[in-house]
């Protein structure tokens, strides 16, 4: 075995040279990997005792792509293209032997090889689109030559990997192998040599491209089919253009076009934001005083208290992950209703072909409904999702304290109540934590885990681990009203209400946010969630929201009653502006002595989003969030903040905190409203010329 570089070894097995990449954790194509591959391939080609080459990886995966940390830095030799050219033009066959995930530049390395074999569990994909990029090392030119234009487009625009059986079916790999991977690669290379198979260079294939040449409708149809899902993103269109180039241009010119389109993306604000977000998401898993080796409790059984809107969805998450879950309700009727909705949800998924009837039964079989609280006795985690009332929550926790295993985690799904007070109803506050799911709980990826004053490290580590296990993106936050997400959302809501009285209309306000990239604006969101919920809470507290109250008094509770801030046609969720609401708004404004004026889209955007950033600054200063990027993760996964804008804190940094602070002061001067007082942290950072993320 010869070490070519710190991360690439060259070994000889008979007449086959084996190049092993070892660059933990994911064998990214860092400079020393590229150099090692280049020099190793050169050596093997020059060695007359070598007849074929195998490229294989050590550790948990094949090369998972370019080293993202190198993006934005000055390029260092050798470039990936040089390495790939060398591999593809090798006079000796090169075989890639793949396990784990061959992603991005990793898959592109394999596409430059003459043959590819993989283990059954391997995955193959070009996920660059998720970083706002396109496959920049020949992927857009080679993949369609192998799998065809439509499959290639689908893989590159979704970024989702495919499994080995599918890869085999589409000709992306030549064989599925078992046993020691390097040995299997060598075995395959021996076969290639023995059968005198030709050097299969993907660049020379044309059949699958010729099939769509002169058929622009293939691209037009594809663009139409993905229009909704790619709205606002820049990379998908460049990927499509690069594949068009693959079809219409010779290979080398196609590569040049790919390069231009890649460089354009690399310097785009969208990719910058998406690359930032890739690391932000991984950073959120790290808790400074709860290191990753903190023992987390293994969750073999779960329980959920309450089978309402949230309880049912939370239970589904466990069943989906194969964890048995007991659901406890007060009465049989509520239980049957709740579990009935769970079944209907699964059946709807099955009817769309995303689950088999068998899967539905298997998952339902993992959910046990009961009205007997004692059934939670053997649960490792119990998540309470009963009515949002402190006395009820405390009663439930006191009960759980008496019944649950001594080391069980006791979690609450409260959205507004004090987790510390709930914990005080038990004799084990160290085992209590908030697990704030978002509605619909079986769909939304965000999980705000709320750390109480007394939550133990094990409890925190368990809540984070279980969140990941059930497919969520857990972010740890502290106790305060609304936690991070809803506390910031509230600020936005206050301004939305003011804006419509001052002169904007609900559809204008919503459009500014949908144009920004949110899936919907505050008014359509209110209609979706149901306006009656807030109305009831306001009545209980003696609070008022004049426009919303008048709308509710008319029985307009949103989509469920066919009308709210907007009206809806039967069976259609499209919000339609309604003159009746416009009249209410004008009446309320008149009654309040407000002279309505034209409000610009720019003002709407600033007034909706700057207060959120300001609240984010307070949240950071109060240490409710561990870091600014956690706030961004919360907003992207919980509220549909467009990922190509990074998140509110990243976005604020791009605007510049000084400009943002000054605009707040301007609004304050114009309105005399203390609401616009910039948070001390915002002021400090603005004065120092810093951003939240660099802070
Ligand atoms: N570059 C640098 N670091 C990377 C990386 C990459 N491509 N991929 C992962 N990492 C780091 C992560 O930041 C993380 O670091 P940390 O432990 O310090 O937080 C560590 O590797 C482990 O990553 P995960 O926590 O994500 O590990 P998982 O096992 O859950 O997932 C994975 C592994 C599926 C490979 C996942 O990391 C992944 O999807 N990586 C990105 C793959 C990708 O986007 N590749 C394309 C890159 S762009 C490209 O290749 C351009 C080319 O076309 C020219
Ligand atoms: P819900 O009213 O739909 O369901 C509550 C259920 O709990 C009812 O089925 C009720 O019968 C049951 N229940 C009441 N007391 C009980 C008891 N002592 N033992 C067992 N079951 C009992 O309410 P929803 O919307 O599911 O909310 C539950 C919790 O989740 C609340 O704390 C709420 O604030 C929180 N939450 C709600 C969100 C939402 O969008 N609905 C979002 C995030 C959190």
Question: What features would you highlight for this structure?
Answer:
695 residues, alpha/beta, 2-enoyl-CoA Hydratase, Chain A, domain 1, Rossmann fold, N-(1-d-carboxylethyl)-l-norvaline Dehydrogenase, domain 2, 3 domains, 8-stranded mixed beta sheet, 7-stranded mixed beta sheet, 49% helix, 12% strand, globular, binds 3-hydroxybutanoyl-coenzyme A, binds 1,4-dihydronicotinamide adenine dinucleotide
Give the topology:
Blueprint: E1 2-5, E2 8-13, E3 16-21, H1 31-46, E4 52-57, H2 80-88, E5 94-98, E6 101-103, H3 105-112, E7 115-119, E8 123-125, H4 139-147, H5 149-158, E9 162-163, H6 164-169, E10 175-177, H7 181-194, H8 207-210, H9 216-226, H10 235-248, H11 251-266, H12 269-283, E11 302-305, H13 309-320, E12 325-328, H14 332-351, H15 357-366, E13 367-370, E14 381-384, H16 390-403, E15 409-412, H17 419-423, E16 432-437, E17 446-451, H18 457-469, E18 473-478, H19 485-502, H20 506-516, H21 522-529, H22 531-541, H23 546-553, H24 579-591, H25 601-621, H26 628-639, H27 648-655, H28 657-671, H29 680-688
Parallel strand pairs: 3-4, 4-5, 5-7, 6-8, 7-10, 11-12, 11-14, 12-13, 14-15, 15-16, 17-18
Antiparallel strand pairs: 1-2, 2-3, 8-9, 16-17
Helix pairs in contact: 1-2, 2-3, 4-5, 4-10, 5-10, 10-11, 12-26, 13-14, 13-15, 14-15, 19-25, 20-25, 23-24, 28-29
The chain binds 3-hydroxybutanoyl-coenzyme A and 1,4-dihydronicotinamide adenine dinucleotide (NAI).
The site of 1,4-dihydronicotinamide adenine dinucleotide has 23 residues, from α13, α14 and α16.
């Amino acid at each position: 075995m010869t070490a070519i570089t710190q991360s690439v070894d060259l070994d000889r097995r008979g007449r086959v040279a084996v190049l092993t990449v070892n660059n933990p954790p994911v064998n990214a194509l860092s400079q020393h990997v590229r150099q090692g591959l280049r020099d190793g391939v050169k050596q093997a080609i020059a060695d007359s005792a070598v007849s074929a080459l195998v490229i294989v990886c050590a550790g948990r995966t094949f090369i998972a792509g370019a080293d993202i940390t190198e993006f934005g830095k000055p390029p260092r030799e050798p470039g990936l293209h040089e390495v790939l050219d060398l591999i593809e033009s090798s006079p000796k066959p090169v075989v890639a032997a793949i396990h784990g995930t061959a992603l991005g530049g990793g898959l592109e390395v394999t596409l430059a090889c003459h043959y590819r074999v993989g283990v059954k569990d391997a995955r193959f994909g070009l996920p660059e689109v998720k970083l706002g990029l396109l496959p920049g090392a020949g992927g857009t030119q080679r993949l369609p030559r192998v799998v065809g234009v439509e499959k290639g487009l689908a893989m590159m625009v979704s970024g989702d990997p495919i499994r080995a059986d599918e890869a085999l079916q589409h000709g992306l790999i030549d064989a599925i192998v078992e046993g020691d991977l390097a040995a299997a690669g060598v075995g395959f290379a021996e076969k290639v040599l023995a059968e005198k198979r030709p050097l299969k260079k993907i660049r020379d294939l044309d059949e699958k491209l010729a099939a769509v040449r002169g058929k622009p409708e293939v691209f037009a149809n594809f663009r139409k089919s993905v229009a909704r899902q790619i709205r606002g993103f820049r990379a998908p269109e460049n990927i499509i253009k690069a594949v068009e180039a693959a079809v219409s241009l010779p290979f080398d010119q196609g590569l040049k076009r790919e390069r231009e389109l890649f460089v354009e993306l690399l310097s785009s604000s969208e990719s910058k934001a998406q690359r930032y977000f890739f690391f932000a998401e991984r950073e959120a898993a790290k808790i400074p005083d709860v290191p990753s080796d903190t023992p987390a409790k293994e969750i073999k059984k779960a329980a959920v208290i309450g089978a309402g809107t949230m309880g049912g969805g939370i239970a589904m998450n466990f069943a989906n992950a194969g964890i048995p879950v007991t659901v406890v309700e007060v009465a049989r009727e509520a239980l049957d209703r709740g579990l009935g909705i769970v079944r209907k949800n699964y059946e709807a998924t099955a009817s769309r072909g995303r689950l088999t009837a068998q899967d539905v039964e298997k998952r339902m079989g993992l959910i046990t409904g009961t009205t007997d609280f004692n059934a939670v006795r053997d649960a490792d985690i119990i998540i309470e999702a009963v009515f949002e009332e402190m006395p009820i929550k405390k009663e439930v926790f006191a009960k759980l304290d008496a019944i649950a295993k001594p080391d069980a985690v006791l979690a609450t799904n409260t959205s507004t109540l004090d987790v510390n007070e709930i914990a005080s109803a038990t004799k084990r506050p160290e085992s209590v934590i908030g697990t704030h799911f978002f509605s619909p709980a079986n769909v939304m990826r965000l999980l705000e885990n709320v750390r109480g004053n007394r939550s133990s490290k094990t409890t925190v580590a368990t809540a984070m681990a279980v969140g990941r296990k059930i497919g969520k993106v857990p972010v740890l936050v502290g106790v305060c009203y609304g936690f991070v997400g809803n506390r910031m959302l509230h600020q936005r809501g206050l301004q939305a209400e003011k804006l419509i009285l001052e002169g904007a209309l609900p559809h204008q306000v919503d459009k500014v946010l949908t144009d920004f990239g949110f899936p919907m604006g505050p008014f359509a969101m209110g209609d979706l969630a149901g306006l009656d919920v807030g109305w009831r809470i306001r009545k209980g507290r003696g609070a008022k929201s004049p426009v919303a109250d008048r709308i509710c008094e008319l029985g307009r509770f949103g989509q469920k009653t066919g009308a709210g801030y907007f009206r809806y046609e039967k069976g259609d969720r499209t919000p339609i502006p309604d003159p009746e609401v416009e009249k209410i708004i004008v009446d309320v404004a008149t009654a309040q002595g407000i002279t309505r004026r034209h409000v610009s889209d720019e003002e709407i955007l600033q007034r909706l989003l700057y207060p959120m950033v300001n609240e984010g600054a307070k949240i950071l200063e109060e240490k409710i969030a561990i870091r600014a990027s956690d706030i961004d993760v919360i907003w992207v996964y919980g509220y549909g903040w467009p990922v190509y804008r990074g998140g509110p804190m990243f976005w604020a940094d791009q605007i510049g905190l000084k400009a943002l602070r000054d605009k707040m002061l301007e609004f304050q001067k114009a309105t005399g409203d203390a609401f616009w007082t910039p948070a001390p942290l915002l002021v400090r950072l603005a004065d120092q010329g810093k951003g939240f993320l660099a802070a």
